[in-house]
Amino acid sequence: MTRMIIIGAPGSGKGTQAEYLAAHFGIPTISTGELFRTHVRELTELGAEARGFMDRGELVPDRLTDAMVARRLADDDVARGFLLDGYPRNLAQLGALDEVLAADGKQLDAVVHLDLDEEELVQRLLQRAAEQGRSDDTETVIRRRLELYREETLPVVTAYAQRGIVVEVDGGGDRAAITERAIAAVGSFLGAR
Ligand code: AMP
């Protein structure tokens, strides 16, 4: 039973790493970006509300995001733990998550911070934009998403670090090497508690 979060800038590969880490630890991933993209694709009311924010690289308002995550955390498969990918993205969401977990008497075990320098991030994102054509991958939007990450999300890493639950992972290099480093770092962190 492990309750984890993965935090990394747009382009850090956190979505991919989340899948490998979750498979290794036998827990489901909860990716807010994926959940929102599914809502947009399926033309739900939430999708219609979220879409404009996503296309501009802005955060979807907390009330929508927090409610969506709280609903997902109530699902049966999450009883054996989870890996949150893309949430919390700001300090208000961190507070909302604390409340949802505390209401159930639960706590986070670890927060993986995938660290990468900004130039490499921009390069990766521009490459992904060329390959996949995601509507939120234009250069202006990419810069906005990185700025939001710096201003809103890095403080989340700092807050969790003050609780002593952050595991720093170097996000550079190839996919498999990063996965291996992350699994080893999380494993030794959890083992040492
Ligand atoms: P991601 O795939 O995690 O980069 O998310 C794609 C987009 O979904 C983001 O740029 C936001 O517009 C939205 N999103 C994902 N997670 C959150 C969140 N925790 N809070 C607000 N918006 C989010």
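^ adenosine monophosphate complex. The mean pLDDT is 94. The helical segments are 14-25, 32-41, 45-56, 62-73, 91-103, 118-132, 139-162, 175-191.
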